[in-house]
From TrEMBL:
This is Lipoprotein-anchoring transpeptidase ErfK/SrfK. Gene3D superfamilies: L,D-transpeptidase catalytic domain-like. The active site is at H189, C205. InterPro entries: LD-transpeptidase, LD_TPept_cat_dom, TAT_signal, Transpep_catalytic_dom. Belongs to the YkuD family. Keywords: Cell shape, Cell wall biogenesis/degradation, Glycosyltransferase, Hydrolase, Lipoprotein, Peptidoglycan synthesis, Transferase. Pfam families: YkuD.
Amino acid sequence: MTDRSSSAGSLTRRAFVIGAGAATLAGCVSARPPSVAPQPQVPVREKRVRPPMYEALPDERFPIPAVDISRLEERFWRAEIDYDAREVPGTLIVDTPAKYLYHVRPGGRAVRYEIGVGRDGFSWAGRAIMAYRREWPRWAPPDAMVARQPELEPYSIANGGMGPGLRNPLGARALYIHKDGKDTLYRLHGTPEAWSIGKEVSSGCIRLVNQDIIHLHGSVRDGSPIVVIPDPAKRHLLAV
């Protein structure tokens, strides 16, 4: 199928800038502390057959349960599509308004992933590099985040952060984004919270279900370019 995203067709004509809030990104955690508040209620949907790509991964270091596809609409499932990106193969394109991530492949193709994005005030946009990747990463909230959410103090940098595992906000894999040789504090990472995909919930970072971030981690290469398209509603991220 062919993706019709209006954002993609004008990538080469857009200017991108790092958002002023990049230095204070909240460390890739959902709007609530990990495993504290209950998940929001969602409408009951008709039963669907789970595709093999979203089955459980029992052989992972921390066994990953199957994705609850009642919370992940079929139109958002991972797919390889026709995609005229006008970017070199290997590029990662984060379409923030559409809440899709594309991994550009040769021949006018791309793998499309549905994502959750940062809520207003903790977003970033621009051109950068996916500097490196980590399996089952540790996570530590920046000091600014701890100041806002004191309940995260046990996981602070001073206390060594949170160890890897299913409760870790970075999930099974994390991709680290650098700009001009500096860490933007912006991440692409996993989450077990399928309900959060397609929404604005994280503090700045891009989240994929764990099965999707594992797939992306295995196909992307360190040093790959990344383009993050700003949301027009967040005008502080747009170039003038």
